Amino acid sequence: MSLSAYVHIPFCARKCNYCAFYSAATSSVKTEKYVLALENQIRKSSSKGEKLTSVFFGGGTPSVLPPHLFNRLLKALFETFDLSGAEISTELNPDSVDNILDPSVFSKFNRFSMGVQSFDDEELSVLGRIHNADQAIKAFGKLRSAGANNVNIDLMIALPGENHFQKLERTLETAIKLSPEHISAYILTPEESTPLYEKYGYFNDDIAPDIYRYVCKRLAFAGYEHYEISNFSKKGYRCLHNMCYWTQQKYLAFGPTACGFDGSSRFRIDCSIDEFIEKNGLVEPLVEENLSFTDLEEEKTMLSLRLCDGIDKQTFDRMIADKQKKGFVENLLSSSLAYVNDKGGLSLTDDGFLVSNEIIRNLM
């Protein structure tokens, strides 16, 4: 079982209208204190010396960190773990890409994930983003010019406002022209605690399936493999860190609200930024869930059905030995919601992904 690490940077220049994640406004004093505490947590890790498959800086907005603070964390990681051959990724926003482009920072990463969301300025304004489409295109160009050859862009689909389908067509055309190695496309369902929900409530539920199908077909035509419900990649560019999550590999958690998995238990760094700083990063993880063998097997089925690879033949054969589940699977096959893949297992189609929650409930 491989081991990865998630590093949480809970600061943003401004909170977006759809965001329900734990984050705070950037403050030079607090940010520096936070990085020192996070560095200490990394260096005191009980997994010191182990080889990591991937490291992922998420947030928040990691790219708000000034280069000298970013380098403290990167130095701590490289000195604490074996990162030879690891995928090392960071999220970034177009408005703060220059911090990532600092040569001392840029050279440590081999994958970049840029939060674009849309290439339409009206939609970006609705979402509360502080960049515009032109800035996003230029930021992508800066990454390419600096030598980035593994870039993801995040997009959101089924957004509120008029003429979203036409705007989405233009967004996809722009994305495909830029030709990133990876595209994530998420159907936006607003959390009730966000300004976006307060203004629009739930929206586009009726056309979201058609929008999703269009995105899947358009990206497939452009040469992207639809390898997970919301993720598309060129050949050889699946996100290794996300695959760690989806294949039940172990991962470490660094920073407040970060979550980890040790192979049988899920845990969370359950504290605020201030408490994390006060305790110099040495916060005892809260175990949220201890998983039995049965729990892990059921979770494996659920996670596998999120992937185009699907469930393996052994699991599939065991599943259809149950008469009721076999009948349900036969209905999925006849309805083109699933297919028997080339390894003899079961995979969902794009239409199956749309109702995957219901399918998974019936197969658990």
Largest sheet: 9 strands, mixed
Number of helices: 16
Task: Kindly report the average pLDDT value.
Answer: 93
Low-confidence stretches: none
Strand content: 15-25%
Structural class, by secondary structure, is: alpha/beta
Number of strands: 16
Spatial separation of the terminal alpha carbons: 24 Å
The best one-word shape is globular
Q: Kindly report the spatial arrangement of strands forming the biggest sheet.
A: 9-10-8-7-6-5-4-1-11
Task: Walk me through this protein's architecture.
The relative contact order is 0.12. The protein has helices at residues 28-43, 67-80, 97-101, 103-106, 121-127, 133-146, 164-178, 195-200, 208-221, 240-246, 273-278, 293-304, 313-320, 323-334, 350-354, 356-363; strands at 3-9, 11-12, 24-25, 54-59, 87-92, 111-117, 151-157, 182-187, 225-228, 231-233, 250-254, 259-261, 265-268, 286-290, 338-340, 346-348. With 364 residues, the chain is α/β, with parallel strands linked by helices. 42% of the residues lie in helices and 20% in strands. The protein has 16 helices and 16 strands. The model has no long low-confidence stretch (mean pLDDT 93). Strands 9-10-8-7-6-5-4-1-11 form a nine-stranded mixed β-sheet, sandwiched between helices.
Layout of SSEs?
Layout: E1 3-9, E2 11-12, E3 24-25, H1 28-43, E4 54-59, H2 67-80, E5 87-92, H3 97-101, H4 103-106, E6 111-117, H5 121-127, H6 133-146, E7 151-157, H7 164-178, E8 182-187, H8 195-200, H9 208-221, E9 225-228, E10 231-233, H10 240-246, E11 250-254, E12 259-261, E13 265-268, H11 273-278, E14 286-290, H12 293-304, H13 313-320, H14 323-334, E15 338-340, E16 346-348, H15 350-354, H16 356-363
Parallel strand pairs: 1-4, 1-11, 2-3, 4-5, 5-6, 6-7, 7-8
Antiparallel strand pairs: 8-10, 9-10, 12-13, 13-14, 15-16
